[in-house]
Amino acid sequence: MNDLTDCLTFLLAKAYQKAHGKFKNVLQTHGLTAVQHLVLEALWIEDGLTASEISKRLILDNATLSGVLDRMVDAGWIVKRSDEEDRRYIRIYLSRKSIDMKGILIGVRDSVNKELLSGFTMEESILLKRLLRDIM
C-alpha cells in the first residue's frame, strides 16, 4: 500500500497533533503551554537549572527557550536568580505557584497519557514509548 496511512512522517505528525491538541486544551485552563509544562517538569526533577541545561534536557534551542522562560517569569511560574557562586550564570527556580500546582499538573499529564494509550495493552504502550525514544 502506498498512501499517507503508510507514511511514517504523516502518522507521526497526526499522532502528535492529536496528543498535543488534547494536552494543550487542558493546559490552557491553567495558563500554560506544552513547552512551559516541559520546563516545569525539568525543574521538578532538578530545580535551579540554567537555561542552557534546560535547553539540552528538552532538546530546544536557546532562542526559543529564552522567550518561554521570560513569559513564565511574567506569569509567576518560575523565578530567575543569579548563581551564588558565579554571578555570570542565571539559575531558574520553581515559584511557589509551580510547586503548589505540581500534583495537579502531573495529574493532567498522566490523565492525557492514559487517555491516549487507552486502546493499547501495557506491553504495546511500553513498546510504543521505546520505539518513539529510539526515533528521537
Question: In terms of topology, how is this protein built?
Answer:
Elements: H1 8-28, H2 34-45, E1 49-50, H3 51-58, H4 62-74, E2 78-82, E3 90-94, H5 96-100, H6 102-116, H7 122-135
Antiparallel strand pairs: 1-3, 2-3
Helix pairs in contact: 1-6, 3-4
Offer a few descriptive terms.
mainly alpha, single chain, 9% strand, three-stranded antiparallel sheet, 136 residues
Q: What's this model, at a glance?
A:
The protein has 136 residues and is mainly alpha-helical.
- Our count of helices gives 7
Task: Give the helix proportion (percent range).
Answer: 55-70%
Looking at the overall shape, the CATH architecture of the domain at 35-95 is: Orthogonal Bundle
User: In the CATH hierarchy, what is the superfamily of the domain at 35-95?
Assistant: Winged helix-like DNA-binding domain superfamily/Winged helix DNA-binding domain
Written overview of the protein:
- This protein is mainly α.
- The protein is built from 7 helices and 3 strands, in the order ααβααββααα.
- A 3-stranded antiparallel beta sheet has the order 1-3-2.
- α1 packs antiparallel against α6 (about 100-115) and α3 (about 50-60) crosses α4 (about 60-75).
